[in-house]
């Protein structure tokens, strides 16, 4: 199974080296595509030192465009048959890669979601953030007649051709609802597996805010009726 890991990065100098180490330590990754989305904190300078590691490719956005734009750039650049998105902030654990890959390897899924709400270990904080996630997932299930437990999960494993054949427009955090909505409208086989989750406090890093929740709701409603 040829796996490419896409890492969208924006001002993650404190964690970027560690997340690369953790991804490499899994032993299941063919290539790592890092998309720097206009970092200004030294992340770009660190990434420039990776030029001698052939399994790592770095792409630079000249200005900050948003996570969705960075992910879309990574999808276009990736060479692996299967792709997974890995945030650089250490909230998601690459040791879960084998669990995400298993349904795909067994031929029972074209896309695998890593769910934070299926019982795996997690840091129990950010109650209202969890409530917002569950509301957005519930709305997804109502609109698209499904039973997902975690639409907003950052861990989505998928075949590259599925994403390339899908019109994706998201520039920010609305990537998750747009991608999920279009998968469900196309009746792509989705499988969920439990994953570990170690969320950062709001004071520790970038978190989805209330305005992002409203944007996600609008995306879910819009893509229910248009593509």
Helices, strands, pairings?
Elements (H helix, E strand, L loop, with lengths): L2 E7 L6 H10 L5 E7 L5 H5 L8 E6 L5 H11 L4 E4 L11 H9 L5 E5 L11 H18 L11 E4 H5 L10 H11 L4 E5 L15 H16 L2
Parallel strand pairs: 1-2, 1-4, 2-3, 5-7
Antiparallel strand pairs: 4-6, 5-6
Helix pairs in contact: 5-8, 7-8
**How far from one another are the termini?**
30 Å
Rg, nearest Å: 16 Å
Shape: globular
Portion of residues within helices: 25-40%
Q: Describe the oligomeric state of these chains in a short phrase.
A: single chain
Rounded mean pLDDT is 93
Question: What is the number of helices?
Answer: 8
Neighbour order of strands in the largest sheet: 3-2-1-4-6-5-7
Order of helices and strands: EHEHEHEHEHEHHEH
The CATH C-level name is Alpha Beta
- The percent range for strand residues is 15-25%
SS-based structural class?
alpha/beta
**Tally of strands:** 7
Number of domains: 1
Poorly predicted ranges (pLDDT <50, ≥5 residues)? none
CATH-derived architecture: Alpha-Beta Complex
CATH topology: Spore Coat Polysaccharide Biosynthesis Protein SpsA, Chain A
The major pleated sheet works out as:
7 strands, mixed
């Amino acid at each position: 199974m040829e796996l490419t890991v896409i890492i969208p990065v924006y001002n993650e100098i404190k964690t970027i080296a560690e997340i690369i180490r953790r991804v490499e330590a899994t032993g299941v990754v063919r290539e790592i595509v890092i998309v720097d989305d206009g970092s200004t904190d030294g992340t770009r300078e660190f990434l420039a030192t990776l030029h001698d590691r052939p399994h790592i490719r770095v792409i630079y956005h000249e200005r900050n465009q948003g996570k969705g734009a960075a992910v879309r750039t990574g999808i276009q650049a990736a060479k692996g048959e299967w792709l997974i998105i890995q945030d650089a902030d250490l909230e998601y654990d690459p040791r879960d890669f084998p669990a995400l890959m298993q349904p795909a390897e067994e031929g029972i899924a074209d896309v695998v979601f890593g769910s934070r709400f299926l019982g795996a270990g997690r840091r129990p904080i950010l109650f209202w953030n969890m409530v917002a996630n569950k509301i957005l997932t519930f709305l997804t299930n109502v609109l698209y007649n499904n039973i997902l437990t975690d639409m907003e999960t950052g861990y989505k494993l998928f075949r590259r051709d599925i994403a390339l054949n899908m019109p994706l427009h998201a520039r920010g955090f609305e990537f998750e609802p747009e991608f999920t909505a279009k998968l469900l409208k196309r009746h792509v086989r989705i499988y969920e597996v439990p994953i570990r989750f170690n969320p950062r406090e709001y004071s520790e890093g970038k978190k989805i805010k209330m305005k992002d929740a409203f944007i996600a709701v609008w995306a879910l409603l819009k893509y229910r009726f248009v593509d």
